Amino acid sequence: MQCHRCKGSMVLEKFRDFYDDTGNIDFIGWRCLICGEIFDPVIHTNRRHHPPPLVGKNRKLIIASKR
User: Fold this and answer.
1) Span 45-67, pLDDT tens digits
2) Which of 22-26, 30-34, 42-46, 63-67 is most confident?
3) What is the spatial distance between Cα 11 and Cα 59, in angstroms, rounded to a whole number?
4) In degrees rounded to 5, what are phi and psi of residue 40?
5) What Å distances lie between residue 54 and 30, 39, 40, 59, CA to CA?
6) Is 54 among the domain residues?
7) I want to staple 54 with a disulfide (CB 3.0 to 4.6 A). Which of 9, 24, 39, 59 is the partner?
8) What distance in Å separates the CA atoms of residue 21 and residue 59, rounded to the nearest whole number?
9) How many domains does the structure of the chain reveal?
10) Is 28 left (phi over 0), alpha (psi -120 to 50) or beta?
11) How many angstroms separate the CA atoms of 40 and 7, rounded?
12) Which residues pair with 10 in a beta bridge?
């Protein structure tokens, strides 16, 4: 698998989340060897259901006008 951030190689890894309230402490995900990006099924689902972040001239104008 290739990292969407830096195009580096990703490896399958087992992670532990001690703060998970579902009772599942361990989960399997992908970690980039170059930038450290972590990607798992929950992250994938959240990224599909949320719009991409605003970038470019429009965002800069909105931020500048609020000050």
Assistant:
1) 888 888 766 666 665 555 555 55
2) 30-34
3) 35
4) -140, 175
5) 26, 21, 23, 6
6) yes
7) 59
8) 36
9) 1
10) beta
11) 17
12) 32
Structure tokens that stand for 47 in this block:
């990224």
The residue behind tokens 């890894």 is 13
What tokens does 11 get?
């490896």
8 A C-beta contact, residue 39 and residue 29: yes
In a domain? residue 16: yes
d(Cα 30, Cα 32) in Å, to the nearest integer? Answer: 7
Residue ranges making up the domain that contains 49: 10-66
Give the whole-angstrom CA distance, residue 50 versus residue 65: 25
**Residue 3 placed within a domain:** no
